Amino acid sequence: MPLYEHVFLARQDVTAQQVETMVETYKGVIEAGGGTVEKIESWGVKSLAYRIKKNRKAHFTLLNISAPPAALAEMERQMQISEDVLRFMTIRVEQLEAEPSAMMQKRDRDDRKDRDRGDRPRRRDDDFGGDRGDRGDRPERNFGGEN
Q: How do residues 61-104 score in pLDDT, each as one tens digit?
């Protein structure tokens, strides 16, 4: 059976629970067509490179699918009808990856960066933008060669 990676973008104003419901609906379509959904990854709400249907952010979700082409076509048809799905893309692959996708690995690296960085010196307010004291009067400027 052919293997696919499918990513879809849902509008930002739908809740995470509604996105999960959408995933379960599409999973049911695939299973009814004789296929299986091997892996589901929710990448969360991310900013878009440009506005899509007046949205600047979207819920990103990845599905690894093993299904006949007819089942995949039916799922894509239902996504086209849905107002909550902004975009989707399906790519046929030779084999499905068992480990987390690059997006999930990136999220793990970002989480590690958020940890406490130890005893770093704090920046004082007067280092940047603080009061510079009285600088006196400005010298007169000479414009146009006047002496």
A: 999 999 999 999 999 999 999 999 999 999 999 888 777 777 77
Residue 62 lies in a domain: yes
Average confidence (pLDDT) per 10 residues, the chain, 147 residues: 92 93 94 92 92 93 93 94 93 84 73 60 57 72 70
Q: From the centroid of its chain, how far is CA 70?
A: 29
CATH number at residue 23: 3.30.70.60
Is 144 part of any domain?
no
Number of domains in the chain: 1
Q: Domain of 41?
A: 3-96
SS3 string, the chain, reads CCEEEEEEEEECCCCHHHHHHHHHHHHHHHHHCCCEEEEEEEEEEEEEEEEECCEEEEEEEEEEEECCHHHHHHHHHHHHHCCCEEEEEEEEECCCCCCCCHHHHHHHHHHHHCCCCCCCCCCCHHHCCCCCCCCCCCCCCCCCCCC
Residue 70 lies in a domain: yes
